[in-house]
Design brief:
Layout: E1 20-21, E2 29-32, E3 35-38, H1 42-51, E4 63-68, H2 74-85, H3 102-105, H4 109-113, E5 131-135, H5 144-147, E6 155-160, H6 163-176, H7 187-196, H8 204-217, E7 222-226, H9 227-232, H10 234-244, H11 251-255, H12 258-265, H13 268-273, H14 275-279, E8 281-283, E9 286-287, H15 306-320
Parallel strand pairs: 4-5, 4-6, 6-7
Antiparallel strand pairs: 1-2, 2-3, 8-9
Bound molecules: adenosine-3'-5'-diphosphate.
Length: 331
């Protein structure tokens, strides 16, 4: 069957006829619009593509879409975006991040918002001023009203991460995930999946390059971040994010240490140690602690052999060639 590339024709799509791969989850993967999606969320993705209508107007100004490949720092950026966007609220008594996992504060478009049966334990507070939502969908598969409109709204903030750390993080995540098809004892299986491209929302290189190129072509619409830069210069990156989403830190805020306070609230150590993230659940059977492991740059050296790293590096070198994109900590 010819794959639909027209979002309006998606109703006719026979999902069962699309190419399939195993991946690491029970439900497996389905190739749709050149991306390997978790099979169970394809209907949600199609609903998102069909129903989400950016209006190409100022009304879209407050909508922020944060995008990422899995295990690239989604949880971290969600907490930062949430804190930056809502910092005018009086949270002196009780900051929502103290009792709610960042994943619930910035809901996923394909897993929650367009899921007819979202199963979220934490209710989303509709009174929040921010309208940030997240996605793992590649840029090319976002609704056309987002990508093809002339307006810079809704804006997109993308976070990327060194692929070697992504592989290792995903391997650990998969082994703790309730929907895994089996225990994945060898990280080599994940290197194989990664290199074949047959991995959730993969291939990784298409995902990252799609947003990278969009950020170069439309810098007012797409902001491209790197996990490693956030680690190295949190203040500089948080200021970039705030400026991009239209709520720059004022001089008073900067001199009053507000940027540092936001970073501290969203820091790995702070979030990981909160009761909600140690013992809470995002949905039944899914522990919040799965989103917090080590939070380090370069942990891949403790898990990948040099030949595994070389294999990934060769592919990335070829795929990224001429793009101007590179990551530190790859060797
Ligand atoms: P590790 O497995 O390398 O520790 P995602 O949020 O996209 O699922 O990515 C998860 C990765 O981000 C995990 O990496 C996790 O530990 C790390 N992480 C989560 N919260 C973080 C934070 N506040 N600061 C830095 N890293 C964080």
């Amino acid at each position: 069957m010819a794959e639909e590339d027209d979002n309006d024709g998606c109703l006719d799509l026979v999902i069962s006829e699309l190419p399939k791969a195993s991946g690491w989850r029970k439900d497996g993967l389905t190739l749709y619009q050149n991306c390997w999606f978790p099979s169970n969320i394809i209907p949600n993705i199609i609903s998102f593509q069909k129903q989400f209508k950016a209006k190409d107007k100022e009304e879209d100004k407050d909508i922020i879409i944060m995008a990422s490949f899995q295990k690239s720092g989604t949880t971290w950026l969600k907490s930062l975006l949430f804190s930056i966007l809502n910092r005018s609220q009086d949270y002196s008594e009780h900051h929502p991040l103290l009792t709610t996992n960042p994943q619930a504060l910035v809901p996923s478009l394909e897993f929650t918002v367009y899921n007819p049966n979202p199963q979220m334990i934490n209710n989303i507070d509709n009174n929040l001023s921010s309208r940030a939502m997240s996605t793992h969908i590649p840029y090319a598969s976002l609704p056309r009203s987002i990508t093809q409109c002339c307006s810079k709204y809704p804006r997109i903030v993308y976070i990327s991460r060194n692929p070697l750390d992504v592989i290792v993080s995903l391997w650990h995540f998969a082994n703790a995930h309730p929907d895994r098809s089996r225990d994945w004892t060898s990280v080599g299986d994940f290197v194989d999946m990664f290199c074949s491209g047959e991995i959730n929302f993969g291939p990784y290189w298409d995902h990252v390059l799609g947003y990278w190129k969009a950020s170069l072509e439309r810098p007012e619409k797409v902001l491209f971040l790197k996990y490693e830069d956030l680690k190295e210069d949190g203040v500089g990156q948080a200021k970039r994010v705030a400026e991009f989403v239209g709520v720059p830190f004022s001089r008073e805020e900067e001199s009053g240490g507000v940027v540092e306070q936001v970073l501290e609230m969203c820091s790995f150590g702070k979030l990981k140690d909160l009761d909600v993230n140690k013992h809470g659940q995002l949905r039944p059977n899914f522990d919040n602690k799965l989103f917090f492991r080590k939070g380090q740059v370069g942990d891949w050296v403790n898990h990948l052999t040099p030949s595994m790293a070389d294999r990934v590096n060769e592919i990335i070198k070829e795929k990224f060639s001429g793009s101007g994109l590179s990551f530190r900590n790859m060797s």
